[in-house]
From TrEMBL:
Keywords: Decarboxylase, Lyase, Pyrimidine biosynthesis. SMART domains: OMPdecase. Residues 18-283 form the Orotidine 5'-phosphate decarboxylase domain. It is an enzyme of class 4 (lyase). One of its GO terms (biological process) is 'de novo' UMP biosynthetic process. It catalyses: orotidine 5'-phosphate + H(+) = UMP + CO2. It comes from Gimesia algae. This is Orotidine 5'-phosphate decarboxylase. One of its GO terms (molecular function) is orotidine-5'-phosphate decarboxylase activity. Transmembrane segments: none annotated. Belongs to the OMP decarboxylase family. Type 2 subfamily.
Length: 313
């Protein structure tokens, strides 16, 4: 399907869940078997870490590909390790695409138009994975430089059937420092939301949603509900569930009646499920993949039981 949201919604309806698994590897938390494999076969620290991240994420993909529609590799954790880390990220993205998953590369890119064009062409492959070296379906984008800097991302997304998610109301505690600054009574995040909704309307697919989405944190449920109403054609990427303290009740307002309109991210809560109860009590450390599987199934059930995502079942 040559439209990002149509493709994402088809995947959500096929897997009957809006659960999005983030891929956020942290070396100190990796399973022992993965670290020993990497140490055995590699020499420099960067190569060891990159190889460990790659094996970890590829094995997570094997577990979650049958369960969820999409994954969100966090570029930062790979970029920290330079070329070796970036090569690992590229292979993780390709493996996820080959597994039939929609891939949102979380790199929060943003720059002036001519430079943004390079980011867009490098990351946004859309349905044809050969059309961009990073081969992602979608990219997170920082709008701080202004709406003109979003245009190159929009143009390439439309051309290639890809998507972007623009940061609108982020999940972090300090989100309001700038996002809540008011101009004539309107918060900055509401101004950005209006610009993003306009782009979503312009890029609508066969369904109700555009290829231009918004990131809205689950940790601000009131703003999430407000923005769902303000942005009826904008698909939402909702981080903050799990490790940042938000639960299914906080994200119920992100969806439309069919249970579409949003994907709900959990990274640490799934990647490192083995480290915390109840999974640390049910599984031995080497059973970390089983812990990921059950944690994902639990998240899917939590969303189905407490949000309109239950209408996807
Ligand atoms: O763009 C994002 O995905 C993002 C935006 C935001 O406002 N908050 C936020 O946590 N994220 C990302 O979502 C992921 C959340 O990870 P967990 O808190 O481990 O589930 C990280 O990769 C963050 O960078």
């Amino acid at each position: 399907m040559h439209h990002f949201s149509d493709r994402l919604n088809a995947a959500i309806q096929k897997k009957k869940t809006p659960a999005l698994v983030g891929l956020d590897p942290r070396f100190d938390w990796l399973p022992a078997d993965i670290v020993s494999n990497a140490n055995k076969n590699h020499h420099t620290q960067a190569e060891i870490v990159a190889a460990a991240f790659e094996e970890f994420c590829l094995r997570i993909i094997d577990v979650v590909a049958p369960l969820v529609p999409a994954v969100k590799p966090q570029a930062a954790f790979f970029e920290e390790w330079g070329p070796a880390g970036c090569a690992a990220l590229q292979r993780v993205i390709l493996k996820a695409r080959e597994a039939g998953l929609v891939v949102i590369c979380d790199a929060k890119r943003g720059d002036i138009g001519s430079t943004a064009e390079a980011y867009a062409r490098g990351y946004l492959a859309g349905e044809n994975i050969d059309s961009a070296i990073w081969a992602a379906d979608c990219l997170t984008v920082n709008p701080y430089l202004g709406s003109d800097t979003l245009e190159p991302f929009v143009n390439v997304a439309v051309e290639r059937g890809a998507g972007i998610y623009v940061l609108v109301r982020t999940s972090n505690p300090g989100a309001g420092t700038f996002q809540d600054r008011k101009t004539e009574g309107t918060n900055l995040y509401e101004c950005v939301a209006a610009a993003v909704e306009e782009l979503a309307v312009k890029t609508k697919g066969a369904g109700n949603y555009g290829s231009i989405g918004a990131v809205v944190g689950a940790t601000y449920p009131e703003e999430l509900n407000q923005l769902r109403a303000l942005m009826p054609h904008t698909p939402l990427l909702v981080p903050g569930y799990g490790s940042q303290g938000a639960g299914a009740g906080d994200v119920a307002g992100a969806f439309d009646k069919q249970g579409l309109g949003a994907i709900i991210n959990s990274s640490r809560g799934i990647n490192f499920a083995i480290r915390k109860a109840p999974y640390s009590e049910k599984f031995a450390p080497q059973e970390w993949e089983q812990a990921i599987e059950i944690a994902t199934i639990d998240m899917i059930a939590d969303l189905a039981n407490h949000t309109p995502a239950g209408n996807l079942q």
